Amino acid sequence: MRPDLIRxxxxxxxxxxxxxxxxxxxxxxxxxxxxDFGAGEGTDSxxxxxGAARAQxxxxxxxxxxxxxxxxxxxxxxxxxDLGRSIARPAPVGAxxxxxxxxxxxxxxxxxxxxxxxxxxxxxxxxxxxxxxxARLLVSLAGALAAIPEFLVAIGLVLVFSVELGWFPLxxxxxxxxxxxxxxxxxxxxxxxxxxxxxxxxVALVLVGASSFVLLxxxxxxxxxxxxxxxxxxxxxxxxxxxxxxxxxxxxxxPLVTFAGLRLGSVLGGALVIERVFNVPGLGLLSYExxxxxxxxxxxxxxxxxxxxxxxxNLLVEIVYLRLAWRSGSAHG
Length: 333
Description:
The radius of gyration is 24 Å and the shape is globular. α5 (133-146) packs across α7 (184-224), α7 (184-224) crosses α10 and α10 runs antiparallel to α12. The protein has a single domain (95-332), classed as MetI-like (MetI-like fold, Orthogonal Bundle), CATH 1.10.3720. The chain has helices at 2-29, 51-60, 67-79, 93-128, 133-146, 150-164, 184-224, 228-235, 240-251, 253-278, 283-293, 296-332. It is mainly α.
């Protein structure tokens, strides 16, 4: 197992190097620049910069240097853990990410866990009792939802539950200018207020994510439902529920775990759109604003961290696969 693990880590190390180069180059390939007047909401949103101020900023951020010099400085700062300072905002990039990260992580993890739990349960049940009208309807709805982009689901939820019914807020992550105390009731009120604001964004991500889990769990369960070892489990007197929980579900866990790791990367992309639709103050909205202002340091940091998260999730899945394959080979040997 050790040589395979070393080769795997070396491959992912090369991927990290590639991600670093892409994160540096992609923002600079966008049309316009961070100091162009009219680019967005940053340094130039109110009054155009003077020539002296523009030259000073270009020198400070090395924008007047060749790309090679900019890359060397970027890698040097990153090696020291310095993500730089925002061009469009008077704050370090690290502080901006720390401020926005809890919103995105909370929204992503909550929606991914709920989608995995609901989708897997429904998919297993639909495959275990096939032919029922509700099972066919469930699979059809899951297929339709899986084909709809997150932003269309989000807009539909806004129109129904925010505009028409008024049950949930239209925008934002919390109520602004609201009286909040520092005591326990005030803390509870703030938590409930955030949950209220994040309900529709989470539902949008859960609907799309759960539909994919339904389809995958259904197909995986249908493949093992008539396996001989399940017949052996039934012959021992186990109830059908126990057969599913103790024998069927563990054997379909690997493809579900793999899909969850891949889904994490797609959810990050979907969160950018969802946070823009609902104006949730997370990394997705920060990235959208950074694209508008061509804020290179923010774009580099957000893309790099999201890429690292995706690579870490895939690496963990591959290590689990290696571990299981090694155990299986040892058992047969």
